[in-house]
Amino acid sequence: MARLAVVQPKPPSLCVLPSSVSDFNGTRLSFPIQDKRKVWQTKGALNITASSAKKILIMGGTRFIGIFLSRLLVKEGHQVTLFTRGKAPITQQLPGESEKDYADFSSKVLHLKGDRKDFEFVKSSLSAEGFDVVYDINGREADEVEPILDALPNLEQFIYCSSAGVYLKSDLLPHFETDAVDPKSRHKGKLETESLLESKGVNWTSIRPVYIYGPLNYNPVEEWFFHRLKAGRPIPIPNSGIQISQLGHVKDLARAFVQVLGNEKASKQLFNISGEKYVTFDGLAKACAKAAGFPEPEIVHYNPKEFDFGKKKAFPFRDQHFFASIEKAKSVLGWKPEFDLVGGLADSYNLDFGRGTYRKAADFSTDDMILGKSLVLQS
Predict the structure, then answer these.
(1) How far apart (Å, rounded) are the C-alpha atoms in residues 303 and 311?
(2) Can you tell me the distance from the alpha carbon of 31 to that of 258, in angstroms, rounded to the nearest whole number?
(3) How far, in Å, CA of 20 to CA of 91, rounded?
(4) Which residues lie below 8 Å from residue 211, measured CB to CB, with a gap of 6+?
(5) Where are the alpha helices (DSSP H) in the chain?
(6) pLDDT value at position 51?
(7) Segment among 33-37, 53-57, 236-240, 319-323 with least mean pLDDT
(8) Which end of the chain is more exposed for a tag (fewer CB within 10 A), N or C?
(9) At 15, is the secondary structure helix, strand, or coil?
(10) Residue 221 to residue 218: CA distance in whole angstroms
């Protein structure tokens, strides 16, 4: 696998290093090669030809979203460099991916090793390399983005992974891109980053996913349900279970990220990206069971206010209605999800949890507290 091996404070150099193979998880990667598009100009931005090969930097790229995004970009002929601390393997073979495809991908993707919080190193290494486009997948704070912009004054496009969690809680749903945002949310750093990008006058696009699921998911979204289904345990769900939420498959998200590249309609725009339909918490438990081939689960509802779970999280979703409209992405970008919920959960299960791989071991301690009280009340 080719990597950009960067050792501070020396300038970046190109060398070939071996890659490691993992049994991690699956792919149904398909994205058509873009038709040639005209050169376009955005206000305050440089010209972009969407059909030409780009020198692309992905901040992150070895954990979840970037694994699928980087493959799509390499397949389209772009030169892709991953900026990471080098703590995880730069590539890992995905089940369903042929040896030839994996070898081709890992021979082309490059690696720039460094800490994004070392701002001086970021400036020097990025300015030495020069990139046309930056995908920032793991940025959380605005001060982590400013050095990137300073280092790349001729940057054509900055594509940011934000979050639908920036929206102000509302009784009027779904959330639209024009809705009020919450400056006190735990995602306020992403809001501040979007404001920074706007103030700098760069050509930017920001993607706001809702809950993301799929193979390699490091957040215990579907995995939380799969652990309980496999163990044959009841599934504890807070309150009524009719709270409505929304999940989007990581491969659909990756396609959306590619679709905004060089797209004049995406210039300085926000896009919600998620699944086509909304689902209740109870419905999600049943969908996970159906996707993984388990019997319909027993669901136990509880009042979270009656328990002290300490620092442990008893349920992986926020206990409220939370979903967003994806109509803008569909109408403006021509993007639409390929996965329905049950099909996407089956893809995740078959290519990950069903193979015995997961990120977090099962912890049923909060379940036992809930179920123990439930049994007392029933007796």
Answers:
(1) 17
(2) 9
(3) 7
(4) 219, 221, 245, 246, 247, 248, 274, 317
(5) 65-75, 99-108, 119-129, 146-151, 188-200, 222-230, 250-259, 281-292, 327-328, 341-351, 365-378
(6) 52
(7) 33-37
(8) C
(9) strand
(10) 8
Number of Cβ within 10 Å of residue 85's Cβ equals 13
Closest CA to 162 of 375, 182, 379, 174: 182
What is d(CA 101, CA 287) in angstroms, rounded to the nearest whole number? 32
Per-residue pLDDT reduced to its tens digit, 14-30? 332 333 222 333 333 33
The amino acid occupying position 92 is Q
Residue 280: exposure state from Cβ atoms within 10 A (0-12, 13-18, ≥19): middle
Report, in this order, helix, strand and coil percent for the chain, each rounded to 5.
35, 20, 50
Q: Report the C-alpha gap between 8 and 329 in whole angstroms.
A: 41
What type of residue is 164?
A
For the stretch 115-159, pLDDT in tens is 999 999 999 999 999 999 999 999 999 999 999 999 999 999 999
Q: Is 60 left (phi over 0), alpha (psi -120 to 50) or beta?
A: left
Token duo for residue 154:
């001729």
* CA-angle at 249, arms to 245 and 255, nearest 5°: 130
55: left (phi over 0), alpha (psi -120 to 50) or beta: beta
CA pseudo-torsion sign 53, 54, 57, 61: negative
